[in-house]
From TrEMBL:
Protein name: histone deacetylase
Domain of life: Eukaryota
Cellular-component GO terms for this entry: histone deacetylase complex
Ranges where the Histone deacetylase domain occurs: 59-340
GO biological processes: epigenetic regulation of gene expression
Subcellular location: Nucleus
Cofactors: Zn(2+)
Record-linked InterPro entries: HDAC_classIV, HDACs, His_deacetylse_dom, His_deacetylse_dom_sf, Ureohydrolase_dom_sf
Enzyme superclass (EC): hydrolase
Record EC number: 3.5.1.98
Entry keyword set: Chromatin regulator, Hydrolase, Nucleus, Repressor, Transcription, Transcription regulation
One Pfam short name: Hist_deacetyl
Length: 351
């Protein structure tokens, strides 16, 4: 049983009841819906972008990067706006698949949201405003992450331009991550897609402690996490649950990074045979990123993404990409350029 079963502790201590309720919520969810073939498996909504009286500028995360990625692709003719898939917003019942009532009730207190976002000023605002201007965009991105599982199985790949909130677990948010979208995506995949083996490849500069706690000791999920071990979250408990851990040091450059990645992917290939890959593709590995503290060039980011997509495609494994962290204005441009490169290499088709 996954560690995330603890999210139902307030409802029942019977594992069968917990799983039955989880399954019921997943089967009744509207987050999965049919996508016409005229659309590409590229998921985005203008609702992703956060604008909250300028407070979003008090955190180094670029909360408008998602929209700028799409703008670059559309303006340059790499993709047509009408072909983008818009997800639904995750409902409370959807979130309860992983989170507890207690955790979600905590998000109704602005001060608690402020701690998760690391923006103290948010705590001074009525929660209604916080819900609408901050948490609703996150819930929309959660819907995108969940839907990406269905699309990846159907089309071979899917990209959610948002999501990747890998510091949030069933019972605890942090690091600008309020909902456990990776855990939700995988739980939906188990039930709705009838798969039983998922690999998480987390290449954000920070350790993905949220999903690691949620899938602790769950043999259906294999985690490869390559991160800067010198920085947040320094979650040593969660590190015990990583199947394949690659710990980097601050200042690691592009050449060393690629050598570590090549070796890691070879080991992962031998250790686990997934039916779905969830790729958490943070751009906070970029040189100059104030929080990631690694030194990977923009070209290196594109090569990293290409290596992961090849890893999946050569084994005919559907892949989900989530954009996760990135704390410089240049991140949006780098992501867009990487997606264009993937299209040129015929690893995706933005059509």
């Amino acid at each position: 049983m996954a560690a995330s079963s603890s999210s139902f502790s307030s409802l029942s201590t019977d594992p069968n009841s917990i799983e039955s309720l989880r399954r019921s919520r997943i089967l009744s969810s509207k987050l999965y819906f049919d996508i016409p073939s005229s659309k590409v498996p590229f998921i985005y909504s203008s609702s992703y972008d956060i604008s909250f009286l300028g407070l979003e500028k008090l955190h180094p995360f670029d909360s408008s990067k998602w929209g700028r990625v799409c703008q670059f692709l559309i303006e340059e003719g790499s993709m047509e706006k009408m072909r983008v898939v818009e997800p639904l917003e995750a409902s409370k019942d959807d979130l309860l698949v992983v989170h507890s009532e207690r955790y979600l009730e905590g998000l109704e207190i602005s001060a608690k949201v402020a701690i998760i976002l690391e923006v103290p000023q948010v705590g001074m605002f009525p929660n209604l405003l916080v819900q609408e201007n901050v948490l609703r965009p996150f819930r929309k991105q959660v819907g995108g992450s969940v839907l990406s599982g269905k699309l990846a199985i159907e089309r071979g790949w899917a990209i959610n331009v948002g999501g990747g909130f890998h510091h949030c677990s069933a019972e605890q948010g942090g690091g600008f991550c309020t909902y456990a979208d990776i855990t939700l995506c995988i739980q939906f995949s188990f039930v709705r897609l009838n798969i039983s083996r998922v690999m998480i490849i987390d290449l954000d500069a920070h350790q993905g402690n949220g999903h690691e706690k949620d899938f602790a000791n769950d043999e259906r999920v294999y985690t490869l996490d390559m991160y800067n071990a010198d920085i947040y979250p320094l979650d040593y408990e969660a590190r015990r649950y990583i199947n394949q851990k690659v710990e980097l040091v601050s200042g690691t450059g592009t050449q060393d990074y690629m050598a570590h990645l090549d070796k890691a992917l070879e080991v992962a290939k031998s250790n686990f045979h997934p039916e779905l890959v969830v790729y958490n593709a943070g751009t906070d590995i970029l040189e100059g990123d104030p929080l990631g503290r690694l030194e990977i060039s923009p070209e290196g980011v594109a090569l990293r993404d290409e290596k992961v997509f090849r890893f999946a495609k050569e084994r005919n494994i559907p892949l989900i990409m989530l954009t996760s962290g990135g704390y410089m204005k240049s991140s949006a441009r780098v992501i867009a350029d990487s997606l264009v490169n993937l299209s040129k290499k015929k690893l995706i088709d933005l059509g």
